[in-house]
Amino acid sequence: MYSTTASGEVNRPRLCWTRWFNRDRPSASGDWETLKSLREEYPGKICPAKLKNFEQNISSYKLVIYNTKTGFVCRNKDQKRGRCLDYKVRFRCPCRHCWTQWYNRDTPSATGDWETLADLRKENPGKLCPHPSAVQAVTIFIGIPAEQTGQTFYFPSKGFVCRNQDQPSGNCFNYKVRFKCPCFGIP
User: Fold this and answer.
1) Which of 110, 115, 148, 167 is the most buried (most CB within 10 A)?
2) What is the pLDDT of residue 4?
3) Can you give the residue ranges of every domain in the chain?
4) SS3 for 75?
C-alpha cells in the first residue's frame, strides 16, 4: 500500500522494528525462536505479512536457520561447545505508526521537567510530525515508564510535563520522551 504526495511523489510504507522477543531458553536441543511459535505466543505483535528484515543478537555460533520465513534456530548439536547461548530476535514490519527517536531537552529544573512539543520542534526542526497520536516518557537512567514511577505528570496534547510542586519529594525525575507519528509523517 502506497500513498502519493501532492507533487506526485510515492510514499512507501515505513518499516518499524518490533520489540525484542525471547520465547525459548537453550534446551536439550538448542534455542528455537521460530516465527510460527512467536506468532502463537505473541499474537498480533509480529507483522502477519511477509517480514522485511530480521535481527538477532548473535555471537560466533554456527546458525542452522536464520531468515525472515522461519525465524531463528540454534541447534546444540551444531555448536563446537555443544550448547547454544540464549538468543533474542526482533523483526522489521510495515507499519502505520512509528515512534520517533527519544528526546531529552530539559532536566528537572526549579519547576520540573518540561519536554514540550513546541520546544522540541524548535530544537529539532523537521524531526517531529505535525500531530503525534501518543507520547511515551521514561526515566533517563533506568528507563522506567513514567506511569510506574509514582510521580504525577501530565501528557498535554503538546508533550510531557512533570511539575516539582506536584511531587511528594518536591522533585521530578529526569525523563526522556518520544512521539508516535504516522509513518509518512516522520522524516
Assistant:
1) 115
2) 33
3) 3-95, 98-185
4) strand
